[in-house]
Design brief:
295 residues; mainly alpha; three-stranded antiparallel sheet; two-stranded antiparallel ribbon; 11 helices; elongated; binds zinc ion
Length: 295
């Protein structure tokens, strides 16, 4: 087997572990919400995490997965005759081949501690801790630009559906996602998870929640009477920039926001044509101003 096929084996097992863990975590939570019921899902995700660390090593060279590289032949490796390296060794080796995981170090150590306590000291595990280990795997994929989820988009898509309402995971993800939000951008509250993580200035058609990955048609925000900022929602006049009707949500006092073209306009109407976004000084819209100056 070559590195590529080993990588594939690792990925398939990682995905299987995650799929089982999610199903188990959800069903256990319904049957018995004690913290002891989350030990198995946690451990399964932790193994998936470990496996992915080894997959990253294997991408470099198969022997890095072994506890003693250089002491195992390729034939022995392919037949499973080897001891694999420890979690700490894997992290250290990844650092040595230029994969810097220092930003994840603190959470990785915490997850490792939870694992040890659950295995050796019969400690229970909370849904929050299960969420944390799942999220650290998501972060690992992101930081290392691994194609684990992209290569198996259909399977990850199903998982994403299943975990959409996993409150603890959303909370954990939010702590991360909010650091990346830009002050100059406009974010709407997600109509599914409720977090303000839907970037308005995003893509041509749809909007995506960067937290739960729900997708929306811009019209859904108009239809539901979404109210952004102070004041009541008003369907409002046609947008003076793109001409779409009923596309304005209240954005602030005297300000209209178009959900479609994302332009911001004033509520002042033009004395000449009745269009919104007129200049309060002259009482005219930009079109009329140009017409008059042109005359
Ligand atoms: Zn959401
Ligand atoms: Zn518009
Ligand atoms: Zn006008």
């Amino acid at each position: 087997m070559n590195e590529r096929s080993h990588t594939k084996m690792f990925d398939l097992r990682t995905l299987e572990l995650l799929e089982h863990a999610i199903k188990l975590s959800i069903s256990q939570n319904k049957l018995d919400d004690s913290e002891g019921s989350q030990v198995l899902p946690f451990l399964a995700i932790f193994i998936a995490l470990e496996l992915h660390l080894k997959r990253l090593l294997c991408d470099e060279h198969w022997s890095l997965v072994c506890s003693k590289p250089g002491k195992v032949s390729k034939i022995q490796f392919d037949s499973g005759e080897f001891r694999s390296c420890s979690f700490d060794d894997a992290l250290e080796r990844l650092g040595a081949i230029g994969i810097d995981l220092s930003t994840l170090e603190k959470v990785l150590t915490r997850c490792q501690k939870t694992r040890n306590r659950a295995i050796h000291f019969h400690h229970s595990v909370s849904r929050m801790q299960v969420a944390e280990v799942f999220h650290i795997l998501e972060r690992l994929v992101e930081v290392t630009r691994s194609d684990l989820f992209d290569a198996y988009d259909d399977r990850y898509g199903v998982m994403r559906e299943q975990i959409r309402e996993w409150d603890e995971l959303l909370k954990t993800r939010w702590a991360q996602v909010k650091k990346g939000l830009l002050a100059q951008e406009i974010y709407f509250d997600c109509l599914v998870c409720g977090y303000p993580a839907v970037l308005l200035h995003d893509g041509e058609d749809g909007l995506t929640c960067s937290l739960c990955y729900s997708q929306f048609d811009r019209a859904e925000y108009v239809d539901c009477g979404y109210n952004y900022g102070p004041g009541d929602y008003d369907p409002g006049p046609d947008c003076p920039h793109c001409g779409r009707s009923a596309c304005l949500a209240n954005y602030g006092e005297g300000v209209l926001l178009c959900v479609y073209c994302t332009s911001v306009s004033g509520t002042e109407t033009c004395d000449r044509c009745g269009e919104v976004d007129a200049d309060p000084e002259t009482g005219l819209c930009s079109g009329c101003l140009e017409d008059l100056i042109g005359d």
